[in-house]
Amino acid sequence: MTAESLGSEQSRFVADVAAKLNGFLGVQQETMATISPDVAPLMGSITSLVTGGKRLRALMCYWGWRGAGGESAHPDIITAGCALELFQAAALIHDDIIDRSDTRRGGPSVHKRFSQLHEGEGWALDSERFGHAAAILTGDLCLSFSEEAFTEIGSRAASGTAARRIFNLMRAEVMAGQYLDILEEVAGPVRDRAGAVDRAQSIIRFKSAKYSTEHPLALGGALAGASEELLQGYSAFALPLGEAFQLRDDVLGVFGDPGTTGKPAGDDLREGKRTVLVGFAINQAAADDSSYIDTMLGRQDLGEAEVAEIRRIIVDCGALEATEAMIEELSNEAFEALERLPLADLPLTALRQLAEAAVSRAA
Amino acid sequence: MTAESLGSEQSRFVADVAAKLNGFLGVQQETMATISPDVAPLMGSITSLVTGGKRLRALMCYWGWRGAGGESAHPDIITAGCALELFQAAALIHDDIIDRSDTRRGGPSVHKRFSQLHEGEGWALDSERFGHAAAILTGDLCLSFSEEAFTEIGSRAASGTAARRIFNLMRAEVMAGQYLDILEEVAGPVRDRAGAVDRAQSIIRFKSAKYSTEHPLALGGALAGASEELLQGYSAFALPLGEAFQLRDDVLGVFGDPGTTGKPAGDDLREGKRTVLVGFAINQAAADDSSYIDTMLGRQDLGEAEVAEIRRIIVDCGALEATEAMIEELSNEAFEALERLPLADLPLTALRQLAEAAVSRAA
């Protein structure tokens, strides 16, 4: 009974968000068409990016709203979901430039799409540079759209509301967190090794946990007028959940199956990501192995043999085990906090399912 | 009398915007400090960038507001000026990455500041890549701040208001215009030469004229409740003014004195900007000279001799003269439209002064 109504309600919300995104981008497309047909690829990139995805953030927001007594299928929560999806698309576009990731969900990333357009058309100068420039602008446009959608909510998201404060904080924190992430890639090798795990944990808190789970859930709650107490309860659940989610992502970034993740194996290692997993390895591995990781991380030309060797070190020194134990611990913390939440059956079950999917996924 | 009160009123507004920016960024800095002391350079870059500048957009907005009957020193117009300055800073940060400009107002651009930080600290991996990544994130943060400030205006800028529509349109159009600009750099050489001037004019309309003058003036007017008729009158003045302003900028980008502009001589040529000035040259110069420009544009290694040769071609074929004539014509159109505006003496004089400074500046 509950499972059935939950599934259909959730599917309906996802469909409503998709329809709203479609309508919103359709209106934007009309404006763009008055400027020049040449700008179509910017809109095409954004549309294609918001079409896929797990919609984790929109769903967290939805159940945060429902848990706080918001009506199902209310236009405000659909619009909020739409704003979160647009923000995520903007973040992914710029992220992929920063990480030099040429693939996204099994297809070319936005900067790669523009490089390919350049090459296909036989344009002058450098195709890669054009790709990066066009993707910076596409991400900026998408970031503006996200805010435009959020403002469409109207009075519940107006200046001074709790929802607006959460939305602003979410954006600032994820950008700061991303910066800490790229900083650790370059500064990590010359900073103290003992602090590597702590720094990596701080990074995932801001760039991922707060952004992917804590803030979306709180945003939904705030839009429905949740009490401060409920918001604190949400946070006690969503923050450890988000950390576990990102730790799972980090494990998949090194050990995931490319066929399932849609990313080449070992891409996180080539990007030089200094994750908690890597932090444990650097601290626990023998000196030689630890130096090997330090030398190899961030090398674009990392081959299969090197990736396999780094994996071996991570497994043998117990870093994978330590990370899995941390995921387990954070998951338990999240699920215990979830059961303490004063929620009706439906949102409680929905959040439990989302949480289970987040920490046990393979992609 | 008028000159004196105008000067003091304008100085007061500029000081109010600076103080508001200071307060706004101070609050943001407190949030950032709770994340990590490592994120300080992001805030430092933004603060340093909004400290300088001509404040053209904020002033257009102010006099648009005053012309439509808005009170002097009203908090809403100060906040709007602040939002425009933050938006401009965000645009400059990403622009400088796109154009590979290492200098901004005589100092290092943001991506260059981060590269220098990387080198100074002796960090690992590539300093240039780190600089670009950090500047993408700093621009994103600044873009979010801009919107956050704009929303602080409250009801006059709420969802559905004319001011919000203008702000949204301004952002979308400038990003689309920037894309057309980088597209022309790469696609221009293989597109028809006869259309080069028209395409360059369309680019400056969207990336510059609408953004720098038309929309800020309309925004101020809309915030003060201007009639549709007044907004149309504003546009008839500000659009040709903005085009003349950008044409002047393009001339300075090739012929300007580096000591005054704060940019190396010929930087626009190295960036491969296909401006109206260049479009005229490609159409009017002899075939050899035209091909020379096509070959040299966008080459990062362009030396003084090549820059001098391109200048010679631009002058000899009459492209400079044609561009100056266009500036003259657009200026006349703008000033005539200005005199038709039903404005009080003070805003009329102020807009006249701003317009004169915009089209006759040397930097």
From TrEMBL, chains A, B:
Top-tier EC class: transferase
Membrane spanning stretches: none
Superkingdom, natural source: Bacteria
Entry's Gene Ontology molecular function annotations: (2E,6E)-farnesyl diphosphate synthase activity; dimethylallyltranstransferase activity; geranylgeranyl diphosphate synthase activity; metal ion binding
Cofactor or coenzyme needed: Mg(2+)
One of the GO biological process terms: isoprenoid biosynthetic process
Name of one Pfam family that matches: polyprenyl_synt
UniProt keyword terms in alphabetical order: Magnesium, Metal-binding, Transferase
Tagged with keyword Plastid: no
Entry-linked SUPFAM superfamilies: Terpenoid synthases
Family per similarity comment: Belongs to the FPP/GGPP synthase family.
Protein's name according to its UniProt entry: Geranylgeranyl diphosphate synthase type I
Species name: Arthrobacter bambusae
